[in-house]
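W.,

You were right to be curious about this one. When I first looked at the sequence I had no strong expectations either way, so I just let the prediction run and decided to look at it fresh. Below is the sequence, 678 residues in total, followed by the output.
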Amino acid sequence: MSRRRSRSASARVGRPVGRRRVVLAFWVLAGLAIVLRAVQVQVLQAEVWRDLAENQQQRTVKVPAARGAILDRNGAPLAVSQERIKVAIAPREVGDADATETRLVEALGISRSEARSAVRSSRKWKYVAGDFAPSVREGLEGLAGVHTERMVRRVYPAGLRGTQLLGSIIDGKALGGIEETFDAILAGAAGEEVSARDGYGREIPGETWTVRPPVPGGSVTLTLDLDVQEIAAEALQSQIEHTNAAGGDLLVVDPRTGEILAMVSLRSDGQPGLSVVNTPYEPGSTFKPITLVALLERGLMQLSDSIDTGNGSWTIHGRTVHDVHAGGKMTLADVLRVSSNVGVAKAAQRLSAREQYETMRDFGFGSYTGVPLAGEVRGTLRAPSQWSAQSAVSHAIGYEVGVTPIQMTMAYAALANGGTLLEPLLIREVRDPSGSVVREDRKRVVRRVASEDVTRAIREVLVDVVEDGTGTRAQMSMFRVAGKSGTARAYGVGGYEVGAYYSSFVGFFPADDPQLVVYVKLDRPRGGYYGGSVAAPVTLATLESILAAHGTPLDRGALVKTSRRQARRSPVSSPFRFAGRDAGNDDAHSSAEAWAALPTPDPAVAVAPSEGALRVPDVRGLSSRVAVRRLHASGFRVRWSGEGVVTGTRPTIGSVRTAGDTIFIVAAPRNGSRDPRP
């Protein structure tokens, strides 16, 4: 019995000790777990938890950089970035709703109902419609529940928004044109901004810091002249509407340097394109001077040589070539002047296939011109081994060869400058964000394609084309214009379209010392379709408007000398005709000397009525495009700000100015965009 009691007592004593050991082990393990967890959180995962805490207490956002400007040759902005502010309301964070509404109305210029809708919305977050000037931040500073967001939008002060020449910015990405080609320079580098937040994730007013400021992009200066671009666009759009054409192209190039002063492609609905570089066509008769150059350069014919065009019809290798009128025997010069298909085709028989091909190739056909725009095509120029028996005749008169407007323009520039093919220049200079010039394009000679004697002889025939041939509607009164019209059948799906034509005219001015080459093409005009009747007048209107604008890149001293020589040949009373003006106003100046010496006027200075003075027309209520066209047609130079409906001009409507003065037009802002500044 005593032994049993002894064992029972020992068991009772051992149980508490065992429990204590278990409890002790538990606490030791728990403490060890806490220590290990602390090491894990504070040492191994310290950075992760630190980042999580920072994300709860602050917000880091990218600050968009201002995209660099695209400028014309004179520094006029074609595309620039504009800082704007988006305003968002977090209704649950708003303290005094009435006071907040009042501040919004005062700072943003919105209605009381708009402010109330945003402040008392049931949504967690609501943007105020539109965007605002950066100055609104001051009026909203410290206002609980009101948040501002900086944004940078692309604006096009010259009205070239969305053109494929400049390209566009969609969702921050550059698409097409200059924007895409030079995106690396223009884009800039985004910055970084940090704002403090409270325990509920709400932004603390005034607690925002710039960690890394945004770096604006560099700039690209084009060879385009904004005045010439506007003139070209209006002249082309007007003729597209007048002829119900499917579209058209117009280029203005300086043949001395290859600089592109204007580049316009439009469709019938007024939408811009880029067919000047990406849409080849068969040129027709504007190609004939190239055939004559091939003959004269090789001494195979002279312009005085006689060709029998018969009754205006000639059959060769199963193909019949027709002329509009029977010509009989005529010189090679007259063949070009009256644009005889039979005469040129017969003359071309003296050329071998290789000689004909080499001349076309040397003038740049079938090759890239080098213009810095994505999408340029080479056109079509097949090697002689791929020609049919009829190809030589077809090529001679501008068929079986696909050329782009830019190729044809540069070919005529070579005829104008004495036989040198130049690379078209669209970029004048590129500057990096620091302002340093990183690219500067200058005249680039591709090759010599003809001698000066030959091109001089061809130029004289092209003057005859304008004065007494197929291009008489491009004549000017004081200066000689050289040029050639072309009318070619339009090729569609399945073959040539019935009654569809490309109507073109390429001319250079003044013929004696060319400063400008003007190329015009209309796509499928309705009614009259000959290039001399529908395209040549656009050349004339463009040249007259360029002369009326004093800021355009013309060597006026050289023009005075040219006009004197022309006056001695054929004196006239009026040196200029301005497009769209009444006959009684044609004598704007009594002599070319007086016109050339006229200083650029100051728009702020009044001009007394005098001979040749003009009144500023009433363009209020018109669209910017129509207003610009009307002012250009009246002989004025134009600048404008804003988009939409014209609200006024400086100088004012009805004031008296001199032809070539600058008129500033102001248009109402587009809907959905507000600027509270007065």
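Here's what jumped out at me. The CA atoms of residues 352 and 392 lie 9 Å apart. And, maybe more interesting for your project: Residues 571-612, 670-678 have pLDDT under 50 and may be disordered.

Coffee later to discuss?

I.
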